Design the sequence.
């Protein structure tokens, strides 16, 4: 009874809100990934199938837009859609490709979206396939998957802010894929814009000729008419042959209640049309194609899809477990060599998700399966808590990624959930040579096992990149040091901006590091990180005891140096949350069995 009251109270406190770092509460989403039309309307539209078989690979350009968050990717996509007549120039087009409500209300892109455009240049009509990508580090897996369907990318840089941390990360992501990178400066019309300085940063950092950088303003349309000609001239067409057997890469999926699983594919060879039978290389299952089409930007059926084109395919795939992002599909009885696919996303943050009502477990299980079909970077493992019952341990790429997933679960699937504080995956190295991953505090060895069998405990580290004005260098170095960081190096990318690299424990990133970074830099610092392996660390398990009874839902793993301060803070917060009873409630926090704080209600 006591634990039940405590958990109800926690829902209204900041103890359980650790999972909401950074503190951006995202809006809700009530529609699916794509705004599919009603079934009746879609039947009528099939009579209006577009014939795109007249576009050979040399008249196709598949490209994406990559940039740091809030540098104008979605706004540029709007102008390009208007320029090609895909959407009307009403002046009300704002982030048309940001179809999730959470994206529109927060002004960020969390899901890569594609749109096909027809554009005439030098007397030839081109099929331009655009993919708008997220800019936040937590959604980098979306970017990497999108780049696999492209031959080139637009690197968009804000002329007022210059190069930011995610600009650097996305450039090297595209460079590593061997894509043609076309740099462009956006927001050159702003009073604070410094296009010459930003161009010099691009030239100095990426070794790109500054004279070839296009200057424009996506908001006003200034210079946008030169974007697509630049894409056609500077990006190669897709490779492949129409005469080869059909081969396609599955790089995105989502679930539609009318047609089941919808597959977004890049056609590498051959062609596909309605009625053809295709086979999955991964599962060897066979499917009959019921519809093919392009995103325009809504689903638009076509007579066929052929080499070099990017479009969707529906094939009566009813189970979400059948779709594997990175899978290769081929025509039945015409097997082909599988494409490399994608390196699986490695979860950096884990959190427990539990239904408020235990009777909703089955429905929530189905909802999580459908949502992970649309976001394949989330890992799912079932777990059981003594206090919270049956649930899941979900792995995310970051805390923002986790918060967006929670919002989508609540609104798209009407789920009522409790999410625990985020943790990172630790490693336990035993004296017999074995290694075990710890994704939840409940799996952490007890004090006796630690003394007798454990050789070392290890925690994940990240290589962080920060870019900020030179005047904040002292504060940034201090911030890294306070969070157990190891400074690698810092360089000046121009006379006023510094690029700082340091190694940090991942556990420090998922707490309040981002908030402190923005506070100490007055909002001017940008931040990006990548995995940097595991390192030995002095870890302890922090437990919360109520009248000598452990509450597993509040347990956590942390570094010993922070255990005393964290234990005292936790005890004080619980004293404020728990209501007084007719008897004393003793609150204790213990690190590896040693009491570090006590409060009484």
Sequence:
């Amino acid at each position: 009874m006591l634990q039940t009251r405590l958990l109800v109270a926690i829902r209204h406190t900041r103890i359980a809100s650790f999972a909401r770092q950074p503190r951006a509460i995202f809006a809700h989403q009530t529609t699916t990934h794509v705004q599919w039309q009603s079934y009746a309307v879609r039947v009528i539209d099939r009579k209006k199938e577009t014939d795109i078989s007249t576009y050979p690979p040399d008249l196709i350009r598949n490209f994406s837009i990559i940039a740091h968050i809030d540098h104008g990717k979605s706004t540029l996509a709007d102008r390009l859609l208007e320029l090609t007549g895909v959407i009307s120039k009403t002046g009300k087009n704002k982030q048309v490709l940001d179809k999730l409500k959470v994206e529109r209300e927060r002004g960020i892109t969390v899901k890569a979206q594609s749109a096909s455009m027809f554009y005439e240049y030098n007397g030839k009509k081109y099929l331009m396939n655009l993919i708008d990508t997220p800019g936040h580090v937590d959604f980098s897996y979306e970017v990497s998957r999108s780049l696999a369907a492209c031959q080139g990318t637009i690197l968009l840089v804000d002329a007022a802010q210059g190069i930011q941390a995610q600009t650097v990360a996305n450039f090297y992501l595209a460079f590593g894929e061997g894509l043609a990178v076309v740099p462009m400066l956006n927001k050159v019309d702003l009073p604070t814009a410094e296009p010459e300085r930003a161009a010099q940063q691009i030239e100095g950092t990426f070794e790109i000729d500054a004279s070839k950088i296009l200057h424009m303003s996506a908001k006003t349309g200034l210079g946008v008419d030169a974007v697509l000609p630049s894409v056609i001239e500077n990006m190669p067409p897709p490779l492949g042959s129409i005469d080869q057997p059909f081969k396609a890469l599955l790089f995105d999926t989502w679930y539609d209640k009318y047609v089941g699983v919808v597959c977004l594919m890049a056609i590498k060879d051959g062609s596909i049309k309605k009625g053809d039978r295709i086979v999955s290389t991964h599962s060897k299952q066979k499917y009959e194609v019921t519809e093919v089409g392009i995103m325009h930007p809504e689903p638009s059926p076509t007579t066929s899809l052929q080499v070099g084109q990017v479009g969707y395919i529906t094939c009566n795939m009813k189970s979400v477990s059948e779709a594997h992002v990175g899978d290769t599909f081929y025509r039945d009885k015409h097997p082909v060599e599988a494409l490399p696919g994608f390196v699986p996303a490695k979860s950096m943050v884990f959190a427990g998700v539990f239904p408020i009502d235990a009777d909703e477990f089955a429905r929530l299980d189905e909802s999580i399966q459908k949502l992970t079909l649309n976001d394949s970077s989330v890992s799912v493992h079932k777990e059981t808590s003594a206090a919270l019952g049956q649930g899941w341990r979900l792995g995310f790429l970051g805390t923002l990624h986790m918060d967006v997933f929670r919002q989508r679960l609540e609104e798209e699937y009407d789920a009522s959930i409790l999410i625990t504080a985020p943790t990172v995956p630790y490693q336990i190295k035993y004296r017999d040579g074995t290694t075990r991953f710890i994704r939840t505090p409940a799996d952490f060895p007890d004090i006796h096992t630690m003394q007798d069998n454990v050789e070392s405990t290890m925690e994940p580290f990240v290589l962080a990149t920060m870019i900020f004005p030179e005047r904040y260098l002292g504060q940034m170095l201090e911030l890294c040091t306070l969070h157990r960081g190891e400074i690698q190096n810092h360089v000046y990318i121009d006379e006023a901006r510094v690029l700082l690299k340091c190694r940090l424990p991942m556990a420090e990133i998922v707490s309040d590091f981002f908030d402190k970074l923005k506070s100490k830099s007055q909002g001017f610092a940008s931040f990006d990180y990548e995995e940097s392996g595991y390192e030995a660390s002095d870890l302890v398990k922090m437990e919360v005891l109520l009248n000598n009874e452990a509450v597993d839902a509040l347990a956590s793993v942390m570094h010993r140096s922070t255990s005393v301060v964290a234990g005292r803070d936790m005890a004080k917060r619980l004293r404020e949350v728990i209501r007084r009873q007719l008897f004393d409630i003793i609150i204790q926090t213990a690190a590896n069995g040693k009491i570090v704080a006590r409060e009484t209600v």
Q: What stands out?
A: Residues 1-47 have pLDDT under 50 and may be disordered.
